[in-house]
Amino acid sequence: MEKRLPSLAEVLFVLIGFGAIMVTFIVVFGISIHLALLTTWFLIIGLGLKIGYSYKQMQDGLLSGVNDGLEAIIVLTSVGALIGTWIAGGIVPSIIYYGLSVINPSIFLLAAFIICTVTSIATGTSFGSAGTAGIAMMAIGASFGFPLPLVAGAVISGCYVGDKMSPLSDTTVMTASLSKVDLIDHIKSMFTVALPAWILSAVLFLVVGLFYKGSGDLSAALNTMGSLEEYFNISWYMLIPAAVVILLLIFKMPSIPVILFGAFLGTIWAFLFQGATFLEAFNIMYAGNTIESGVPFIDNLLNRGGIVFMLDVIALIIFALGVGGLMERIGVLRAVGNYLGKWANNPGKATVTTLLAGLLGNAFGGAYVSLITATKITGDNYDKLHMDRRVLSRNSEAGGTVTTAMVPWSDGGVFMAAALGVSTMSYLPFLWFNFLVLIISLIYGFTGKFIWRTQPGEQTQELEGETSSVSSISEIGNVTN
Fold this sequence. Notes:
Elements: H1 8-28, H2 33-50, H3 55-68, H4 70-88, H5 91-102, H6 108-123, H7 126-143, H8 148-165, H9 170-179, H10 183-211, H11 218-231, H12 240-250, H13 255-273, H14 278-287, H15 296-302, H16 307-329, H17 332-343, H18 347-363, H19 367-384, H20 389-399, H21 411-420, H22 424-427, H23 432-447, H24 468-480
């Protein structure tokens, strides 16, 4: 058969069918998300056969989709090893201990948001930040009596600031490349959205933290500190591996070997300072940490890590990437782009289509797929509308990177739920930074604010001189370059 693009009815059939399968499997019958995604493969393959594709062609597309996410899978494996050894080596417990001793409950949510922001910007990884500083913040928040979904919202919000803004972040670099935009120009463009979103989020976390001030149980915090001292050697030099990893990432060393090196440092620390034999400490990289402290939420947060801890997440991501690869190969994504392009005839609608394309990519594959769908589906339309590609790159990060943790079966959603011990749907209402990025992006699109044009005389606003903060980001970019 001669291959063709799917029709609008066929595209809707796949999208509605995907949603129906997910709801039926997960909500109605309580069946694993893995099996729901696997079943979706056959739905898409059926459409592919109908419109002229052979199974071999679709299998190649499926494998190509999985290949696109292999880097994320390796990062997840490395972070799993890091989490296990950093708990066993006393790094995470020491962070928790010192955090409990210096952080005031009334400003805890704001502090958690800021700490995770700084960590993610310094390291460029939301997964690594959530798996280390994030776990520590969860334990501290539980000790102070805060609802864990609220704490997870502050942690994840902070982690995605760096994932979106750091020049060390793979998604930031990838988006600039896919959009054909200079990396520093891309970051400066995002700053126009990220800065107000960050300020508003900080205010929200501060106000809510003050509201919950009376519920902070300091006796629980003291009990937690006592339990940590009983089971771990707590000292300032426990923080050395964290400092080394952050410095290496700041100096733009490759993230995967740096994370694995950090995991090995955790092994050494567990052997030298926590009483484990070297073989026991080394095996924690694979098997994860185990502890029975007698404090339930401490056991829940610190009995984790290791490569085994990530295997379920990795399997889920492989199935999701396969869905994205199949959709790309049979032309569903291209057809969606064509239909959206006909509707998106102004900057506001173009912004909507990019955000939706990013969200669609997260639903059908995860963070890397979302950046591909956001840029590939809508990029040509920005050129037709004479919109600068800095706007495309900014909106692609908003629709792709920022929404990753919002989708329960995406790599970000699965990892955050597993690492922090809170389900995606529980923490979703508290992802205030993520939602504010989407809202502000839409406001800019429909008002024309920070929408730069490519034709002479159509430039609505110059990027240079917008804020002193943007200038400082530029200086940082010059240094990193």
